[in-house]
Design a protein that fits this description.
The complex is a heterodimer.
Chain A: H1 3-15, H2 27-53, E1 63-75, E2 78-82, E3 96-103, E4 112-118, E5 125-130, E6 136-141, E7 146-151, E8 153-154, E9 160-167, E10 186-187, H3 190-193, E11 207-211, E12 214-218, E13 226-233, H4 252-268
Chain B: H1 5-16, H2 27-46, H3 67-73, E1 77-83, E2 89-91, E3 105-113, E4 121-122, H4 125-132, E5 144-148, E6 151-155, E7 161-168, E8 177-179, E9 185-187, H5 199-216, H6 220-232
Parallel strand pairs in B: 4-5
Antiparallel strand pairs in B: 1-7, 2-6, 3-7, 5-6, 8-9
Helix pairs in contact in B: 1-5, 2-5, 5-6
The chains are: A alpha+beta, B alpha+beta.
Chain lengths: 283, 234
């Protein structure tokens, strides 16, 4: 189900039909409640499973894998990955199921920055070059203008003044990155974090813990040449209303019920309709 | 078929003319009463706030309630583009070039962004601080406007354009005439301004005009007739 479709469904229920253009309950407000509702549904699923199966877990359908997350240095032997959202707090590590790393695609070709100046004051010129991926490109240079291009090679042009600069890094696309994933990292809790360094290291395993929206990976390796893939409970991309909502269909009613309850509380409150400088009496 | 202004004048004369000594309504009086009546009718369709109840600011009849009310008002609903200046301000639109005599902006029906039919919300000044600083609905993505004394103030200011559907003041009706050899007025369609209303509306306006004329003439029968039609239907 598309996120926008669920928002519209909830709005129509709250407004008893089509939503007028002066509605104070906005799609983004509902969207915010949906994110909270998903966490509520995941928790409900966790407790449902415990009651039904005797084992606590969250169904796979709640999980989504975010790929290509940047790994940055935080401290010595500590690397940080910022997640798209704070994981749900169910269980000790149910919010995040897997953290894996993958080597970045590094373009080994020699690319340089070229500064290109068009000294004609009337004519537009074209700078033909080969970009770092080997594709032929053509850049427009307006009269008396200078452009900067990251290129592997270029076609000589006497109408232009071309100056070679320093090495440049081409934009690294994560698409098509078929480098292998590492073994999953091992989660530790905040309690374990206090003593794990005093214990023997687990061979060939990398440990991580999460705090808020950050995952911290403990490693003496240089990880900034890696990207992270993190599988976590999430409703999907909440900033894109056209994205697919990542909730199992049998838990959508739980989300709807939660959101409706919040919105009906809002609608049933007295509004301060008098602009008289006095606050609304609440008792 | 819609009534022209002469039909309306004849109906009014017929209603008040049973007693000829009392019942003459001059063209000027007729126009004044009729134009006052049409303003009253428009105000009635837009919603009389005297009928609001505490905590429920909705009139018995109010613009937007259903298609019937919109259909009655449709002759005075216009749509146009607004040009928004760099400070986010746009003056009220006017349909004065499209309708004779009047056509000024009266009330907003809906406001949309220039790209598609995304809504631009109206906010009252006393709510603006919260909406302008909202982190849930940032105005950069969900624009708003405030009504000011002679135009709209948009936020964000860089919208450039907006599309508005709005209600105008109805054109003032004129019963144009020339004087015949006896000095009596004779209807002249060329100098007249016709009503824009359909027959359902024009009868509502006529009874309102009759009530004004009845008061003016101290003519209770006319006032009673007008009240009867207005409250019990035609």
């Amino acid at each position: 189900m598309q996120r926008a479709a669920l928002i519209e469904q909830i709005l129509r229920q709250v407004y008893g039909g089509y939503v007028p253009d002066d509605a104070s309950i906005t799609p983004m407000l509902v969207n915010q409640y949906i994110d909270q509702g998903i966490a509520f549904a995941a928790k409900t699923n966790y407790t449902d499973n415990l009651k039904l199966e005797g084992i606590s877990f969250i169904n796979n359908a709640f999980y989504i894998t975010f790929k290509g997350l940047e790994v940055v240095k935080d401290e010595r032997n500590l690397w940080k990955v910022t997640l798209p959202q704070i994981p749900v707090g169910v269980g000790y590590s149910e919010g995040i199921s897997t953290v894996q790393l993958k080597e970045k695609i590094v373009n080994k070709t020699n690319c340089f920055t070229y500064s290109v100046y068009n000294f004609s004051d009337t004519l537009t010129r074209f700078f033909n070059y080969t970009d770092c991926s080997g594709a032929a490109q053509s850049a427009t240079v307006l009269p008396l203008a200078t452009i900067s291009v990251c290129a592997k090679s270029y076609e000589e042009n006497t109408s232009l003044s071309i100056t070679k600069g320093a090495n440049c890094t081409p934009a690294l696309s994560q698409e098509g990155n078929m480098n292998p994933l590492t073994l999953p990292c091992i989660p530790i809790t905040q309690n374990q974090k206090t003593y794990f360094q005093s214990m023997p290291h687990i061979p060939q395993q990398t440990l991580y813990y999460n705090e808020g929206e950050d995952v911290f990976i403990v490693s003496s390796l240089k990880l900034n040449d890696y990207i992270a893939s993190v599988t976590m409970v999430s409703g999907g991309n909440s900033t894109d209303l056209t994205s697919t909502l990542n909730i199992p269909p049998d838990y959508i009613p739980a989300v709807i019920q939660y959101v409706q309850q919040q919105l009906m509380i809002m609608k049933s409150r007295n509004q301060d309709l008098a602009n008289d400088g006095a606050d609304l009496q609440t008792n | 078929m819609a009534y022209n202004i002469n039909d309306v004048y004849n109906i009014v004369l017929l209603a008040v003319g049973k007693n000829n000594q009392q019942g003459y309504v001059s063209p000027a009086d007729f126009q004044n009463a009729l134009n006052q009546a049409q303003k009253s009718y428009v105000a009635y369709l837009l919603g009389n706030f005297q009928q609001y109840q505490p905590g429920r600011p909705v009139a018995r009849v109010e613009f937007g309630q259903n298609m019937v009310i919109r259909q009655r008002l449709i002759p005075i609903i216009y749509e146009t583009w607004l040009s928004i200046d760099g400070a986010g301000y746009s003056p009220y639109p006017s349909a004065s070039g499209l309708v004779p005599s009047n056509g000024d902006y009266l009330q907003t029906d809906a406001m949309w962004s220039a790209y598609g039919y995304e809504r631009i919300r109206e906010v009252q000044q006393n709510y603006f601080y919260q909406i302008q600083n909202s982190s849930i609905d940032p105005v950069a993505d969900w624009p708003v406007y405030m009504i000011k004394n002679n135009g709209f103030q948009f936020s964000p200011a860089n919208l450039g354009q907006a599309k508005i559907s709005y209600v105008i003041e109805p054109p003032d009706m004129i019963w144009g005439y020339t004087l015949d050899g006896n000095g009596l007025p004779v209807y002249n369609p060329a100098t007249s301004v016709q009503p824009v209303w359909d027959i359902a509306s024009i009868l509502e306006i006529i009874v309102r005009a009759l009530r004004i004329i009845g008061v003016n003439l101290s003519y209770n029968e006319v006032s009673n007739y007008a009240n009867q039609v207005e409250f019990q239907g035609q």
